[in-house]
Design goal:
Layout (H helix, E strand, L loop, with lengths): L15 H8 L4 E6 L6 H14 L4 E5 H4 L11 H20 L3 E5 L5 H10 L5 E6 L3 H7 L4 H6 L21 E3 L6 H14 L7
Parallel strand pairs: 1-3, 1-4, 2-3, 4-5
Length: about 200
């Protein structure tokens, strides 16, 4: 698609810095990535709950939820999955300007897609969080029955079975969601946000 030459960016008088000052924390993008069943959504929503209780302004972009509306026109081909993440990247960029802590829960198996989102936002505002869990653990959970269908050949190009997952090369945080209790995983994420100045030290 070509971009219109008649589009001009409008600079608001209410800046990101003013919004962050009002909310008492910095905006950030927490990009949870990992295999299906690794616990991305569970951890993202649990972290959001803790942040909400601290008075933070947050929003979770869940992989399934965005396909009900924003990305309902997309399938699961390689191109569509890449476009899905591109749209989410543009959304979290806007939410960052709003001073909000965005939490995303997408498999996002390819490093190029994750890196593209990272380049959309200012340096230091993107936190790649690798939810590391062995395939056998994820397949053992199989809450949605997806692995069973993938093994039966009913879901083509399924990450971890018939399509690769590229582990993050240098993520801001690795959380062993396959072995560690949820509470410990939450603490690690919150500790990262305090260390990086997103949240005030307590």
């Amino acid at each position: 698609m070509s971009k219109s030459s008649n589009v001009v960016w409008h600079h608001a008088t209410v800046t990101r810095e003013r919004r962050e000052s009002l909310s008492g924390h910095k905006g950030a993008v927490l990009w949870f990535t990992g295999l299906s069943g690794a616990g991305k959504s569970t951890l993202a929503h649990a972290v959001e709950e803790q942040l909400h209780q601290l008075g933070s302004h947050t929003f979770v972009f869940d992989g399934d939820n965005v396909r009900h509306g924003l990305c309902s026109d997309l399938g699961f081909s390689a191109d569509d999955r890449s476009e899905n993440l591109r749209r989410i990247g543009e959304m979290v960029k806007l939410f960052l300007e709003a001073g909000i802590i965005s939490l995303t829960a997408f498999i996002s198996p390819f490093a190029t897609d994750r890196d593209r989102v990272r380049t959309l936002v200012p340096h230091g505002d993107f936190f790649e969080i690798y939810c590391r869990a062995p395939l056998e653990v994820c397949e053992g959970r199989d809450v949605k029955g997806l692995y069973k269908r993938a093994r039966a050949g009913q879901i083509p190009e399924f990450t971890g079975i018939s399509s690769p997952y590229e582990e993050p090369r240098n993520p801001e945080l690795v959380v062993d969601t396959g072995t560690q209790p949820l509470a410990e995983c939450i603490d690690q994420v919150l500790a990262l946000l305090r260390q990086r100045g997103v949240l005030a030290l307590t």
